[in-house]
Structures are given as C-alpha cells and as structure tokens.
C-alpha cells in the first residue's frame, strides 16, 4: 500500500524523537501575531521550523525589576499547535516601537539591564529565543519626522553592541534573530562594519522583503517584488552577511495606493507612475491615500469593488516580478502576492541566491484558506535538508 505523502510524513514525525521531528528542510519561520492568533491544522505546518510570537514591547526590558511578561499567548499554549520540535521565539518590538530600543542601546549599563531582562523573560516563558524587531537602528522609523536621523546616528554602532550583550546574557544555545529592513534607504544601521559584527552573535536575519512600497514613496512599484527583493538580499550579502543566514520575507496581505489619474492613464507601464501625496511632509502622518489588509480581514467597504477587479483583472509583471493591478476607475494601485507569485520567488530568488530560509508575516493573516502558506508548502516539499531538489 502506498501512503499519501502527508500520512507518510506524519508517521515519521510520530516515530522520530522530539529533536528530530521538525521537517529537516530550509528554515521556515512564521510570525504568529496578536492581531490574528489563528493556526491551521498541523499537517499544513509541516515545514514550519520556527514560530515568532509578535510582539512584546521593547520598553518592558528597560525596567529594573520586571516580573511579568505580557503576551497574547503563552509559549506553552503555542507549542501543541505546531509540529513537535518547532522552535518558539518571542518577537520584541515592531513598527513604531523605537524608543525602548534607543533607551536600551544607550550605554553599557542600559544594554546589560535590557539583555538581562531578556534572559529572565526567556527563562520564565520557556521560549527558545528572541527575534529583535527594531525598526530601525539609525533612524527612518515611524518617528523620523519627530526625531531626525542625525540624532540617531549613534545607534548604528550601538545596535550590534546591544545584540552582543543579549547573546552574552541568554547564552549560546538560545536563538537570536532580527527582522531587518528591505529598503536600502532604511539600512542605516547595517553597514560593511556593523553587519559582520552583528552576525557574530545572531543566528539569522529575517529580511523584510515587503512594504517596499509604502507611503513615503511617490511612484508605483511592487511592495514585495522580485527585483526589489534581490536588491535587498544582495545589499546584506555585500555588507558581510552569508546568504545562508538570510531568510526571504513573504507578505500575507495586500496593499493599495491612490494614484494620479492622468499620468497613470497615459503611461504604458503602470510601474513607476506617480501617486498622490501619501504622507504629511511635516509630520509624516498618513493622509489616508494608502491602505492594506490581510487575507483574514474583511475587505474595507470603500475598496471592495476595486479589490474584486484587482483579483480578476490583475497581471504578473515578468520584468520587475510582482502581481499588480491599476484600477483606472478608482485610481488605485494594487500590489500583493498571489499564490503563483509566491511560488515564482523560489527559482528567481531562493535558488538563485542560495538563501537559508523563508518567513512570513504572518500565519494567521493567511486564514482561513491559507492559500499562500500552501504555495510555500508546495515549494518546500521539493527541498531536502540541504536545500537541494528532492528527486523522489
């Protein structure tokens, strides 16, 4: 009798010791978020090697004596939802959470206190490690209009010093990863000097190859496109990171932006046509001309028809690599990954650059159909533990 592939996999998992139970393939990290804390059946998680619970606020670790570590789910609650042996990490920070990291990185004393608290949190929660999500050391974070980058330049060297202190506090057996920017303009803290220093103490980088079009842009592009993703990973390699230490980011959500009608209508290529002003030039505030939502969310009523057209009339850009639709009726530029676009990234990026893994923001964001996770699984099914093609 020939057993289906998933059944054979499940039998192997049941027979294997806990340390060997995770499918030995390329790293596959899923962020599990407080916004969408839902998980599919375990057979759909067969390639997930790490899950990062997002987020715990960075400022918590600056307190002198902290006893509680608030999070939307405990590590013990998460472990049974995944394949035995899956590493469970705590993601610290996130977009807009910069002040806690700045305070932590300030000097030797603050770095030691921050790192010591992380070590106590890891021990208390039973986590396998931490993901440091500082967006971004050196500036260009959410507060870049309030605190200019010139006032944050000191963070560039302090960032790797903070990571070094965290490694010293939690020891060599726990995992440290970092979520890092995908746009060159945001890589202020990642220089040819700091990246090699950083990689001495960190296990892998989650390169956020998404949101690469955002409200700071003035022309249309693919927010998670192939060419831009290649530029991102190449930037880290050129600065000293090994390709196998990098994970490619996948976005389980959509984005849309308001465009200038006449200029886009007259442009043969809808990539590179002008948008309306998307953020306040004085404050950096959102002007309400851009948006997005996950596959788990209800589609906002004001863009329901436009999104329907994007799904049915959108096309894949073979030149820049990305699915898109310009809705002439609503003057909206839509950019997101379809399952097909997800799969295309393996030969075009993963194989070409020999990267060490993938990650996604986020697992629950792909519910309830989990079509993008399924696309990842189809590709990861073809890899063995060395990341080479499985010839079976």
From TrEMBL:
<dbReference type="InterPro" id="IPR001223">
    <property type="entry name" value="Glyco_hydro18_cat"/>
</dbReference>
<dbReference type="InterPro" id="IPR050314">
    <property type="entry name" value="Glycosyl_Hydrlase_18"/>
</dbReference>
<dbReference type="GO" id="GO:0005975">
    <property type="term" value="P:carbohydrate metabolic process"/>
</dbReference>
<dbReference type="GO" id="GO:0008843">
    <property type="term" value="F:endochitinase activity"/>
</dbReference>
<protein>
    <recommendedName>
        <fullName>chitinase</fullName>
        <ecNumber>3.2.1.14</ecNumber>
    </recommendedName>
</protein>
<feature type="domain" description="GH18">
    <location>
        <begin position="26"/>
        <end position="383"/>
    </location>
</feature>
<dbReference type="GO" id="GO:0008061">
    <property type="term" value="F:chitin binding"/>
</dbReference>
<dbReference type="GO" id="GO:0005576">
    <property type="term" value="C:extracellular region"/>
</dbReference>
<keyword id="KW-0378">Hydrolase</keyword>
<dbReference type="InterPro" id="IPR017853">
    <property type="entry name" value="GH"/>
</dbReference>
<feature type="signal peptide">
    <location>
        <begin position="1"/>
        <end position="21"/>
    </location>
</feature>
<dbReference type="Pfam" id="PF00704">
    <property type="entry name" value="Glyco_hydro_18"/>
</dbReference>
<dbReference type="InterPro" id="IPR011583">
    <property type="entry name" value="Chitinase_II/V-like_cat"/>
</dbReference>
<dbReference type="GO" id="GO:0006032">
    <property type="term" value="P:chitin catabolic process"/>
</dbReference>
<keyword id="KW-0732">Signal</keyword>
């Amino acid at each position: 009798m020939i057993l289906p592939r998933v059944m054979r996999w499940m039998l192997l998992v049941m027979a294997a010791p806990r340390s060997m139970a995770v499918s030995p393939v390329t790293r596959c990290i899923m962020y599990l978020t407080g916004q969408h804390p839902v998980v599919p059946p375990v057979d759909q998680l067969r390639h997930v090697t790490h899950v990062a619970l997002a987020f715990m606020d960075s400022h918590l670790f600056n307190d002198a004596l902290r006893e509680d570590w608030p999070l939307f789910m405990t590590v013990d609650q998460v472990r049974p939802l995944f394949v035995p042996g899956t590493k469970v990490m705590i993601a610290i920070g996130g977009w807009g959470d910069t002040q806690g990291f700045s305070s932590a990185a300030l000097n030797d004393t603050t770095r030691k206190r921050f790192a010591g608290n992380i070590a106590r949190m890891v021990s208390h929660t039973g986590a396998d490690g931490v993901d440091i999500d500082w967006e971004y050391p050196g500036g260009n974070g959410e507060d870049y209009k309030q605190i200019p980058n010139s006032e944050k330049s000191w963070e560039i060297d302090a960032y790797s010093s903070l990571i070094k202190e965290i490694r010293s506090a939690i020891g060599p057996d726990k995992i440290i990863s970092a979520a890092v920017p995908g746009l060159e303009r945001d890589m202020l803290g990642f220089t040819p000097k700091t990246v090699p220093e950083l990689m001495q103490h960190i296990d892998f980088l989650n390169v956020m190859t998404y949101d690469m079009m955002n409200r700071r842009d003035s022309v249309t592009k693919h927010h998670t496109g192939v060419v831009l993703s290649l530029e991102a990973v190449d930037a880290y390699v050129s600065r000293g990171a090994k390709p196998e230490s990098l994970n490619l980011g996948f976005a389980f959500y959509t984005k849309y932006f308001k465009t200038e009608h006449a200029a886009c209508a007259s442009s043969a290529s809808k990539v590179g046509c002008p948008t309306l002003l998307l953020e306040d030039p004085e404050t950096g505030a959102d002007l309400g001309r851009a948006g997005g939502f996950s596959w788990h969310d209800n589609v906002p009523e004001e863009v329901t028809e436009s999104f329907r057209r994007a799904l049915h009339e959108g096309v894949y850009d073979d030149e820049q690599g990305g699915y898109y639709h310009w809705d002439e009726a609503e003057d909206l530029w839509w950019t997101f990954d379809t399952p097909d676009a997800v799969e295309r990234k393996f030969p075009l990026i993963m194989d070409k650059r020999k990267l060490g893994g993938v990650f996604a923001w986020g697992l629950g964001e792909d519910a309830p159909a989990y079509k993008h996770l399924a696309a990842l699984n189809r590709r990861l099914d073809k890899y063995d533990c060395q990341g080479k093609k499985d010839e079976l």
